[in-house]
Amino acid sequence: MKKRTKFVFLYILLISIFSAVLGWIIVTASLIESGVYEYKPGCLYNFLLLKNTSFWLLIFLIVICVGITAYFLLNRLERGVSSITGRTIFLFVLMQCLVSTVLGWWLAISTFLNCNEIEITYPSFQKFSTLIYKNIWLLIVLLFFSVGIISFIIIRQLNPSENKKPRGFGLVEVMIAISMMLAIIAASFTMLQISVVGTIKAREQSNASRLIDMIFSKLRNIDFFFLFCCDSSKPYFDLYPEYPYMGVLNVIKNAVEDSGFSKFTIEITFMRRDTSDADGDGLTSDLIPFTDVNGDLIDDYDPEIKYYDHNNDGDYYDTYVENGRKIAEQPDTHLKEVTVTLYKREMVVAQSARLISLEEFSGIESPASGATLSLFVRQPANATYVYNLDTTERENAFNLVIDKSYPEAVVAYRADFNYPLRLWGETDPQATVHFFVNDTISELDSVQADINGNFDFQSYSVTSELVEGRNTIWAKATKEGNVSPYSPREVILDLNPPQISDTQPTGTVNDRTPQVSAIVSDSGISTDTVSGVCAEVITMKVNGETVEHEYNDETGEVIWIDTVTMSYPVLDVGTYTVVLQAGDNAYYKVSATWDFTVSISDPDNSPPSISQKT
User: Fold this and answer.
1) What's the order of all strands across the beta sheet hosting 545-547?
2) Cα 500–chain centre separation
3) What pLDDT does residue 365 have?
4) 262, 277 Cβ separation under 8 angstroms
5) Per-residue DSSP letters for 136-186?
6) One fold for both 375-494 and 499-598?
7) Of 81, 158, 227, 262, whose Cβ has the fewest other Cβ atoms within 10 Å?
8) Contacts (Cβ under 8 Å, ≥6 apart) of 61
9) Nearest residue to 475 (alpha-carbon basis) of 428, 425, 407
10) Is pLDDT of 92 > 70?
């Protein structure tokens, strides 16, 4: 009995250790290949030198489990079961091997978790799961093959008589038990995966949140004018060797790497308070970013905000003093949106953006960052139209009465010699507002606001400088050395009323469904930039009654249609008078009238007659 006990124990111990090592190898290979952990020699070194306490705990648990399995097998013999079936031994050994495999998985994960050089990343854990699912089938095949061999050896020793009829579990019961165990293992692995995913994500986000708070606390102690974009993976953080705060960035880099992240980047967006409603959205309290669509390094809304290489050294890292004020070569907005991003192997793990302003430290407000000196030009509004009534033709087109009114969204202002363009808005009390047209170099006019900050006047100089087509009116307020941001207003000056042409049909037509249409167009005198036809004011009348029409904004064609058939209406014989009214967005109107007659010869419906009978 003792010999048999030792024999069973050793063989089960052998297959159990093999199963644990196999599980450890598969999980370790999957971890390294997927990138969940970055392979470092120190991790494997710790395992090989048995510095990991998990190894000793694994050996202890395997020995305990092997002893329990051997006990059950031998106890079965002691109870009078002289012969143990191969299926019974196979089932017991398989259970033991599966337990050992799971312990091997646990050893692999705990070995790397206890290694300080690891780098965990959640996205690559999904790849790890895929690899495990692929490798687990190889594991099952190897286990079944190995367990079968060991079970065969054990049964040959325990059942020397091959003539005895085996007793024990039947084949069906064994297969059901194996299927249930596989289902339990798959469910356990899925639960383990979900648990590990949640743990990794929670740890990453916790570390990232702590790091980002630390990074921003460091950045707020850097001189505002030296707060630049940087990348910790590049030499000198993609700055320059003499950067005065290189030590601060190195401290941040070390903290980031010690927490298991690969690198960090800092992105800067230059912001300013839109106190002059430069973007024309009607708000003066919102923030707008530095905008440079055409790539000329000058802000599209305020030309005073720009990149300017003052010392001609080929970069924009320096500052200079002008009129007693410190100015940055980068856009001098005094307000920066700083975005910190943490990476693991070029994958974004966490990102946060916060505003940092010069005023946090100096208490000195700057016009570029939204100083108390504000300016809001209410008229003209942005993206509107201007008309000129200096000629009789334009005056008549403007005064023409049509049936429909313009929608509220269409806004146009008068600007001519008899009635110059009206400019009004608000700024600081008694501040001076300066006006420019199409550039910010030559000042054309100025006005001082009243004690309430309101200004309202008509400017001949601004009016005379407007050209047909697109114009930008720039306004800037000044007071006691303070300067507001520019307030640009874009307007289109239209000098040509719309036209109606190609009216049809005319004269007499021999068709009861003729196409009744005309072309409405709006073209400029010296430019193609015009206000355009306003489709909402087009009206078509036939014999004094308003009829439905269809307008094609690409061709300008207006067609009389039947709303029921969505085609040309069927007309009776007779004369028709058509009146077409239209207008453009600059309030110029046009009207055209034409006649046509529908004439269809009546057929001869009288019976035939016979004459000259003989």
Assistant:
1) 507-509, 589-598, 574-583, 539-542, 545-547
2) 46
3) 40
4) no
5) HHHHHHHHHHHHHHHHHHHHHHH---SSSPP-S--HHHHHHHHHHHHHHHH
6) yes
7) 81
8) 103
9) 425
10) no
**pLDDT(455) > 90:** yes
Residue 120 to residue 37: CA distance in whole angstroms: 5
**What 3-state class would DSSP assign to 412?**
strand
The SS3 assignment for 348 reads strand
Residue 61 has pLDDT above 90, yes or no: no
Where exactly are the structural domains of the chain? Answer: 2-169, 208-369, 375-494, 499-598
Tell me which DSSP letter residue 276 carries: T
Give long-range contacts, CB 8 A cutoff, 24+ apart: 168-171.
168/81, 168/84, 168/85, 168/87, 168/88, 169/85, 169/87, 169/88, 169/91, 170/87, 171/87
- CA dist., res. 491 & res. 414, Å (int): 11
Name the strand (E) or helix (H) holding 528: none
The answer to whether the Cα torsion of 231, 236, 242, 247 is positive or negative is positive
Percent of the chain with pLDDT over 90: 35
pLDDT band at 166 (very low <50, low <70, confident <90, very high): very low
As a CATH number, domain 375-494 is: 2.60.40.10
* pLDDT(273) > 80: no
Query: What are 417-447's pLDDT values in tens digits?
Result: 999 999 999 888 889 999 999 988 899 999 9
Collapse the DSSP code of 300 into the 3-class scheme (helix H, G, I; strand E, B; otherwise coil) and give the result.
coil
- Average pLDDT over every residue of 27-48: 53
Exposure on the CB side of residue 391, measured as CA atoms within 13 A: 9
Question: CB of 385 within 8 A of CB of 531?
Answer: yes
Q: Mean pLDDT over residues 500-524, rounded? A: 93
Which residues does 205 contact at the CB level (< 8 Å), separation at least 6? Answer: 350
In this prediction, residues 383-398 reach a mean pLDDT of 94
Structure tokens at 249: 């960035």
Does the domain at 499-598 match CATH 3.40.1350.10? Answer given as: no
The pLDDT score that the predictor gives to residue 291 is 86
**H or E stretch including 550?**
strand 549-551
* pTM tops 0.85: no
Q: What is the pLDDT of residue 549?
A: 94
Token duo for residue 142? 């190897």
Residues 365 and 341 sit within 8 Å (Cβ to Cβ): no
| Least confident interval from 29-43, 231-245, 373-387 | 29-43
pLDDT of residue 494: 95
- DSSP states of 222-252: S-GGG---EETTSGGGGS-TT-TTHHHHHHH
> Which token pair is 237?
């953080």
**CA angle in degrees (0–180, nearest 5) for 141-147-149:** 105
* Nearest CA among 86, 65, 234 for reference residue 151: 86
pLDDT band at 81 (very low <50, low <70, confident <90, very high): very low
Structure tokens at 22: 């196999």
Are the C-beta atoms of residues 538 and 582 closer than 8 Å to each other? yes
Which position has the higher pLDDT, 326 or 547? 547
Q: CB atoms < 10 A from the CB of 3, how many?
A: 8
